[in-house]
Amino acid sequence: MNFGNEISRRALLVGGGQGLLGIALRNLLAGDRNEVPHFAPRAKRVVWMVQNGAPSHVDLFDDKPTLRGRQGEQIPDSVAAGRRFSTMTGGQTARPMLGSIAKFARHGASGATVSDLLPHTAAIADRLCFVKSMHTTQVNHAPAITFLLTGSERPGRPTLGSWLSYGLGRMSDDLPTYVALTSRDREASCGQIFYDWYWGSGFLPSAHQGVKFRGEGDPVLYLQDPSGIDRALRGAMVGDVGALNALRHAVVGDPEIVARTQRYELAYAMQASVPELCDLSAEPDSVLASYGPDVRRKGSYAYNCLMARRLLERGTRFVQIMHAGWDQHRNLDTQLAIQCRDTDAPSAALVLDLARRGLLDDTLVVWGGEFGRTPFVQGEIDAKNRGRDHHPYAFTIWLAGGGVRAGTTYGESDEFGFDVAKDGVHVHDLQATVLHLLGIDHERFTYAFQGRNYRLTDVHGNVVRGLLG
Amino acid sequence: MPSLVRACRTGAAWLVLAGAAAAQQASHWAFTPPQRVVPPAQAGSADTIDAFVGAALAKRGQRLAPPAAPGELLRRVTLDLTGLPPTPEAIAAFEREPSEAAYLAAVDRLLASHAYAERMAWPWLQAARYADTDGYQNDPTRGMWAWRDWLVEALHTNLPFDRLTEWMLAGDLLPEASDEQRLASGFLRNGAHNGEGGRIAEETRVESLFDRTETVGTVWLGLTMECARCHDHKHDPISQREYYALAAYFDQTSETGAGNDGRARPTMRYLPPAQKLRAAELRERLAATPSSVKASAWRQLGPQRKVAEPLPLLAAEGWRTVAEYADGVVHALPDTVGATYLRRTLTVERDVALPISLGSDDGLRVWCNGELLLSRDVRRGAAPDQDAVTLALRTGDNELLLEIDNTGGIGGFYFDQRDAERQAWRDELAALERQAATVLVMDSLPVDRRRTTRVLDRGAYDRGGAVVGPGVPTVFGAGPQGDDRLALARWLTSPANPLAARVAVNRAWQTLFGRGLVTTPDDFGTHGAPPSHPELLDWLAVWFVDSGWDAKALHRLIVTSATYRQTASASAEAYADDPDNVWLARGARRRLPSWLLRDQALALGGLLVQRVGGPPVRPYQPDGVWEEATFGQIRYVRDDGEALYRRSLYTFWRRIVGPTNLFDEAPRQACTVRESRTNSPLHALVTWNDEAYVEAARAMAGRATAAGTTSTERIAWLWRTATARPPTAAELDVLLRRHEDALVRYRANPERAAALLSVGAAPPPADSSAVELAALAIVAAVILNTDEVLSRP
To answer: Which of A414, B412, B631, B701 could form a disulfide with B776 if both were Cys (CB 3.0 to 4.6 A apart)?
Structure first.
């Protein structure tokens, strides 16, 4: 039998660990959680507004006169031939260009280009950093969103929020560290589903998985005591559990028994802190109004944006807002405007609200979808129900807040808005940059699982210095 | 930073280390066959475990702890082997006579129960990534519960692990495969299936292929194959080419990746044996029983070109008699496109109206005595009772003519006379057939349609490169004798594979101790954890093979060891000294898995319904969870009655949003063999507030009321039933004081007592005072939430 190999490895890890190789190997195997943050962070918290379904970059941010001027002409084969699209247009041989359905103007001192569908976003343009050269590898929603959130297109890896919970720990005793909030467009125009792995912890301990707040009823399941048990009685019962656990701990010295009692006390505290979180009575009318008319409707995007601010100011580290409804394969002309109307004011209000409360300086804000939409039409170019298909090769997102270079536009797509022309930012680059802003070197932040050291960015990703303020 | 360190951290280290690693890989312990180790002290088989563990402890100057108290031990072994707590009667009996013989008898009784099979099925469901839906958009329901029932039965009858392996990986390929063997191959089809709109079918098929390959890698080789999908494995001896060679075994099914209805082919309709027998009996009876009308045998013309006006055909040449077309059974017709004409003479002694029932392929016309009675043009497959028509029969002979259209595929027709008795048989048969599950299974492409398996560049489905044939990684030497899944299955449990037995016994150890001898049950490779007790692992592996891969014998061997039976009572210093209990100087106490907590609560409340098998059930779940996850597309309609009280094994598992009252559960997206145990306040909210737990607490109170006359007796009964030991005076004092306090509160507000007792569907006992019962329910809820009851002792 040969265990020598193991013994030598164990010696390396446990005992010896001498020499460069030993140290390097130990780091590789153990991960560097204890060293996180690796350097001074620019942001302590994150709110990521995931626009599921993929907003159309060429209608909202990336103004392409060529598409307007040559509307109806085939997009050149030199650009589009042989490229992969979803099966919605994969079989479509005609790919006529479709100009923006909205008007563009330049906004703010920075002169950022934003279409008139997003007036509130345009109004805060000087606080934002637009990235017009995003690109990804996936052409279908679930894999692309999974890729954006976990660095891998297949379900099962930890999400960014879980990585941060694991690495940076909690800032609140009675609210979750990582919260996911979901909403969808009112017309239910598309069937984008929120899979629970979108806030999953993958192979990280499940304590780091995002807590999905529900859009109706209590935000956390099982929060309410059953009928017939009031707060005082529940408090007494928690005390009993603690007393009985202490008695048992005297016989069985398992520290888990003590930890259990602490968790029960925390649960009791949460039962009070979560309702307080959801009580909007102290919010000034002007603040409520800034989030738009939907703000009081539970489960709406506007409500979730306000909830995000309340969570962040109470110590939640990572809020993941997800809004479905951007998948305009059809009815682009009508649906896109509705989408924008429902999301534009709340997104901008969240940025301003954070700024007003002094939280924006150390809160990173990210807004964007999993890919963009095709510069060519899906369906007939003159049809009322025309749309655009999925487009992974170039799209736009924006960032704001902690450590971000405000009032800038980074990167360019080509004249069709089809491919990246300058300063491409891959999804892994974005992830590396986000970690960097939180004081984390994405290459050193690893977790050993199944014999491999996993990172959010796999073996890729570069920090994009041009996005940093 | 030194460049080497930097290189290591970026992953480029593997290039630096690759040379050394390659040399080490071949001699890595797990890739050499398990050795027949001589135990440190010669003894009976169960004692051998203790000899190995004791020898390791001796090196640390420690020894095994004394045995657990009888109640603690009985609760432990009952929870471990069946996932349920011991009954009050079993606790009392074992405390009266805590002998070795009584313990062995209890173990045998537990192993023989169906509850054992249900409990041991759970880790298999996690490994099999079992769910009741496909996953992804629409998340359609599938009928894999029949596979789950097969698994439970196989564990109950103790199908040896090597046979189990054959059945699950290649049951469909066994000679004259039975329905159950084909069903078992559904193991490979339990993965998620992405039928999202716009999805490329081949991409989904390739994902399933990866999923299958990696699942088999994890379960039978203890190796993580995933890396090798895109490139040669960096530290285990699996090249990318070898990954695709292993995948090639699973590539030869007719699966296309298409389908978004939970029935992606290949599938089978499965009925359990008893129902299947009954269905056959009914079909036979329908076929054999003559009806009141005398009917000639059918005569058939065609299939041939369909004609607009077929009556003249009655005079045509070419009609042939087909005696075997019995009534009440669907008969297949050739897959020729066109029409088949069928005729028969019906003779009656007086004028009579005869209702008949028909089924047909894509179209049907019916004439009686030259009169057109029915004309249907419909795309369908033939089935019973698709159309009904009444024939006005005249005294003497009557001529019935059918025209069956076929626009493609296999044709068919069905005919029966409708009388009351036959209708009853038909109804029963239809009811039976509705119970049949559509199960995703494996099949094998015919030789002329075999796929060519290629290495896929970076795992991309559309970037096929070099052609590979089936094979296992060369580190294992001689591979399977044959190139199909059956050959692979047989090889996996052959002496040529050094890993299957080790990996299997390690999982069994993990189930019983909460921690494997190798703590990375999914990774026995060079970067997995080394075994804490390498000789014991090998000894167990060899023993398991020698036993004929007998899982029950293995479980019996472990739970009868002194190592297993140690007390968990130890000082805080002892816990601090070995927090993970690597060296086993005490009992392996730990929090119970969440599914088991619910089962335990149901059992303690006397609510548990121990019915084995069947379609999944929908017990209590907060409103709106499925609706929110599916944008209102799918509603959660709670079941009533006994479905509320079935074991968690039978709770409907929607892949995109699993049961909400479970935690630390594998999300059923991919094969999982690791156990996760965390400690979150959200868990406390479940066991305090989930309707199932509140209802269990009040049901416990009802049982306690019947079991004692004083508060002290009742509370002591509750404690003893839940912990399998009597309360100490201090414990009893805490609970009595809470009981007094709750009585005061509920007397002041009796409507609150009534409110508490209204939680859950079970009616409160009629003969008890609501205030008394509610106060006792508070005590029961406290007991259910103590760390001791939440833990396996």
So the answer is: B701
